[in-house]
Amino acid sequence: MRRALVVGNWKMNGTRDSIQALLRGLVPAVSHGINGVDIVVCPPFPYLALVAETIKGCEIVLGAQNVSCEEKGAFTGEISPGMLVDCRARYVILGHSERRQQMAETDELIARKFVAAQQAGLIPILCVGETLAQRDNGSAQATVAAQVSAVLTLAGVTALERAVIAYEPVWAIGTGKSATAQQAQQMHAGIRELIAGHDAEVAGAIQLLYGGSVSSANAAELFEQADIDGGLVGGASLDASAFIEICNSVS
Ligand code: PEP
């Protein structure tokens, strides 16, 4: 039985004041958890310590939005997996389409980050998804399969026992235009089938999240699909009541 998981990706948003205000809304509502739903928030790096301190003793878990594939050394501006663990992060988002597109992150680099993150004890949340052009030209499934396969090739299928995959169609991120529940379910089933080709048990156990304009209005229908185990939520995770409503939609 897979547990449900909802992850808030705060992206490059927030100040000390706004993050404290957001947590004042979230922490009391989530302090004892929400009906078997695991909840993770991923603030920008400078606020990891503040968030770690504020969520202490509450059921919210800390994540980060990116990590280096290097362990330490002369990599100015980079953050190592060990540093994230030291800041009490347990999850890390990898391969978000904004990083694939704006920072030219390749499947191979993301796979290396995946391995480095796991070696340090982090749980990677591997983001995959096709662009609108790829959906329109019929290559959506192949694109997502290649993104997952890059990690399978480098890390091996058993590495997915300690990982999460988030299917996020690029055309749905931040656009207000979510994939339909059927489109999302179809891709999630395809990802599970691809993994099952390597190991059926791992495929049955891995949490697959949907991301892309998830809101309190569409979350319930998305989350009730057989292969959708929760969501990766961007914009709506910056609003405490919307995020809580989304978390409640899972149960
Ligand atoms: C995201 O940032 O991963 C995301 C899905 O954003 P949004 O919910 O705003 O579309």
TrEMBL record:
<keyword id="KW-0413">Isomerase</keyword>
<dbReference type="InterPro" id="IPR013785">
    <property type="entry name" value="Aldolase_TIM"/>
</dbReference>
<dbReference type="GO" id="GO:0006094">
    <property type="term" value="P:gluconeogenesis"/>
</dbReference>
<dbReference type="InterPro" id="IPR035990">
    <property type="entry name" value="TIM_sf"/>
</dbReference>
<dbReference type="InterPro" id="IPR022896">
    <property type="entry name" value="TrioseP_Isoase_bac/euk"/>
</dbReference>
<comment type="pathway">
    <text>Carbohydrate biosynthesis; gluconeogenesis.</text>
</comment>
<dbReference type="GO" id="GO:0004807">
    <property type="term" value="F:triose-phosphate isomerase activity"/>
</dbReference>
<comment type="pathway">
    <text>Carbohydrate degradation; glycolysis.</text>
</comment>
<keyword id="KW-0963">Cytoplasm</keyword>
<dbReference type="InterPro" id="IPR020861">
    <property type="entry name" value="Triosephosphate_isomerase_AS"/>
</dbReference>
<protein>
    <recommendedName>
        <fullName>triose-phosphate isomerase</fullName>
        <ecNumber>5.3.1.1</ecNumber>
    </recommendedName>
</protein>
<dbReference type="Pfam" id="PF00121">
    <property type="entry name" value="TIM"/>
</dbReference>
<dbReference type="GO" id="GO:0005829">
    <property type="term" value="C:cytosol"/>
</dbReference>
<keyword id="KW-0324">Glycolysis</keyword>
<dbReference type="GO" id="GO:0006096">
    <property type="term" value="P:glycolytic process"/>
</dbReference>
<comment type="similarity">
    <text>Belongs to the triosephosphate isomerase family.</text>
</comment>
<comment type="subunit">
    <text>Homodimer.</text>
</comment>
<keyword id="KW-0312">Gluconeogenesis</keyword>
<dbReference type="GO" id="GO:0046166">
    <property type="term" value="P:glyceraldehyde-3-phosphate biosynthetic process"/>
</dbReference>
<dbReference type="InterPro" id="IPR000652">
    <property type="entry name" value="Triosephosphate_isomerase"/>
</dbReference>
<dbReference type="GO" id="GO:0019563">
    <property type="term" value="P:glycerol catabolic process"/>
</dbReference>
